[in-house]
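Quick one, probably user error.
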């Protein structure tokens, strides 16, 4: 397990709750963040894929992070998603995160134009670094199923060499263990933080000198993930990993984001949790029944908020 990682441990890819009019419900979101931090999370990846960031405007995103900090969520625990297809929007979001005191930001590649060259991606991230001007560490977000723009070993190595101390790590949401392991094998010895986006890979990654996880399912399974993290090198951790993997299968048995929101609605008794921006849709009654049964089969009981 990688020591002294800035976001080492369990990080939730935090859901974004919404009012009935689909505006962001900051009070509900802050309460959820507090619950996550009290139940096993070391950090909070807000406004990423699970947080519906690409359905949320730039000013809304800035106001959301400002609002969370204003409601007492420690900025140092936040890793906002700030990567967009537009260079200037990425810079604006990343600067705003730095100004609030966030230690790191998670950046998707510029994902609209497909098959960019490594030279093009290097030029993009070079501009981001130079225009942001420091004060925040950058984490790369490898999610080729969504972005269609992967981060290869050569590109990461080039960025690390050109900007020492700036690029701190990567979140790998490919679900490809060989790829995740390659990041750790190449870079973790130098302190580069590799995070799994797939809960099922957590213990194996920790054994390979990885830093932890940043996952959607941590919205509901963070206590189990914390048990894996605390016991990564023993049989207790292996037993917890089996449960963690089962919860991953459960939450992916239906569309992921509305499924997690349905679980939060059941857990809190607050039907407002199911509000979601199109093109995502609320689950059907049959899908709700399916995910509830799948999670119940895992045997975990979520702690209630204080």
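Nope, works fine. Designed sequence:
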């Amino acid at each position: 397990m990688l020591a002294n990682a800035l976001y080492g441990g369990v990080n939730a890819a935090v859901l974004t709750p919404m009012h009935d009019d689909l505006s962001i419900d900051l009070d509900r979101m802050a309460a959820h963040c507090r619950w996550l931090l009290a139940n096993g999370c070391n950090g909070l990846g807000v406004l990423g894929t699970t947080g519906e960031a690409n359905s949320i405007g730039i000013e809304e995103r800035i106001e959301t992070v400002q609002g969370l900090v204003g409601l007492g969520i420690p900025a140092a625990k936040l890793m906002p998603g700030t990567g967009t297809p537009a260079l200037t929007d990425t810079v604006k979001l990343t600067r705003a995160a730095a100004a609030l005191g966030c230690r790191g930001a998670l950046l998707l590649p510029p994902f609209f134009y497909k098959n960019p060259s490594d030279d093009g991606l290097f030029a993009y991230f070079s501009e981001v670094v130079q225009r942001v001007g420091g004060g925040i560490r950058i984490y790369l977000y490898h999610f080729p199923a969504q972005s269609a723009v992967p981060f290869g070993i050569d590109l990461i190595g080039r960025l690390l060499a050109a900007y020492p101390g700036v690029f701190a790590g990567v979140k790998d949401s490919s679900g490809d263990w060989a790829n995740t392991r390659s990041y750790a094998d190449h870079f973790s010895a130098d302190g580069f933080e590799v995070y799994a986006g797939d809960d099922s890979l957590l213990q194996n990654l920790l054994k390979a000198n990885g830093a932890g996880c940043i996952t959607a399912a941590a919205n509901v399974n963070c206590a189990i993930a914390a048990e894996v993290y605390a016991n990564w090198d023993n049989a207790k951790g292996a037993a917890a990993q089996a449960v963690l993997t089962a919860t991953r299968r459960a939450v992916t048995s239906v569309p992921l984001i509305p499924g997690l929101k349905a679980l939060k609605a059941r857990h809190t008794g607050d039907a407002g949790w199911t509000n979601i921006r199109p093109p995502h849709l609320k689950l059907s009654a049959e899908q709700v029944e399916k995910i509830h049964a799948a999670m119940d089969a895992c045997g975990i009981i979520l702690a209630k908020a204080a």
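The CA atoms of residues 186 and 195 lie 14 Å apart.
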